[in-house]
Amino acid sequence: MDFNDYIRDIQDFPQQGIVFKDITPLLQDKETLKKASEALFLLVGEHRIDKVVGMESRGFFFGPMLATKLNAGFVPVRKSGKLPAAKISQSYNLEYGTDILEIHEDSIQKGENVLIHDDVLATGGTAKAVCQLIERLGGNIIACNFLIELDFLSGRNNLNGYEVQSLLHY
Ligand SMILES: O=P(O)(O)OC[C@H]1O[C@H](OP(=O)(O)OP(=O)(O)O)[C@H](O)[C@@H]1O
Ligand SMILES: Nc1ncnc2[nH]cnc12
User: Fold this and answer.
1) 117 Cβ partners below 8 Å, 6+ apart?
2) Which residue, 19, 23, 123, 137, is the most exposed by fewest CB within 10 angstroms?
3) Helix (H) or strand (E) holding 59
4) Which helix (H) or strand (E) holds 101?
5) Do the domain assignments include residue 21?
6) How far is CA 70 from CA 2, 33, 74, 99, 102, in A?
7) Is 116 within 8 Å of 147 (Cβ atoms)?
8) What total number of domains does the chain contain?
9) Quaternary state and partners of this protein (predicted)?
10) Residue 40 within any structural domain of the chain
């Protein structure tokens, strides 16, 4: 089974000139979903992880599954105005726009080992903003884990100094 067969390109979504990597076929297929989840877990290796941080929305697909496999908690990073309790914010740019991300202040304790997970690493703007949020809370970033990395956008250059783990490269 080839994961690439379950990822489709959608031209000009969400805006002109963007080729969108749609992973819903991979999520819909029970065997592929299970295998992708296991493969993402294996990418993490032997690290001890306290918290998996996933970003809204597509970091929520695999983030909690990874957390249970790693015996860790799950922390959502959400877009502006969605989190109810005390939080900190970070603005950022991504491949097709700009936005604000937020995290609850009490979600990570100082010195906790954190794995960041998202579906796609494109320009790295989103992941870099999440790294900044976690470090402002005193978290120790162990690695950034992605289902897909768009190599031609060089997103990992925005994540210098962090381990970047990606299952699929385009
Ligand atoms: O590396 P970057 O250029 O920052 O882009 C990557 C981000 O873009 C997508 O999220 P999007 O903001 O589209 O939100 P969604 O998950 O709610 O669809 C994707 O899920 C990543 O979070
Ligand atoms: N080309 C792309 N496909 C899917 N998700 C993305 N997030 C940022 N760029 C993306």
Assistant:
1) 40, 52, 53, 54, 59, 62, 63, 66, 144, 145, 146
2) 19
3) helix 59-69
4) strand 97-104
5) no
6) 25, 17, 10, 30, 24
7) no
8) 1
9) Homodimer.
10) no
Active site residue 112: no
Amino acid identity of 63? G
Question: To test the ligand 2 pocket, which listed residue (93, 150, 166) has its Cβ within 8 A of the most ligand atoms?
Answer: 150
Q: Tell whether 115 is covered by a domain.
A: yes
Question: Which ligand is nearest the CA of 13, by number?
Answer: 2
User: What's the average pLDDT block by block, 10 residues per block, for the chain (170 residues)?
Assistant: 96 97 98 98 98 98 98 98 98 90 98 98 97 98 98 97 98
Ligand 2 mutation pick, 20, 26, 148, max ligand atoms within 8 A of CB: 20
Active-site residue flag, 95? yes
pTM, 2 dp:
0.97
Given the residues 8, 38, 58, 78, the one annotated as active site: 58
Domain harbouring 57, CATH code: 3.40.50.2020
Residue of 95, 102, 112, 149 marked catalytic:
95
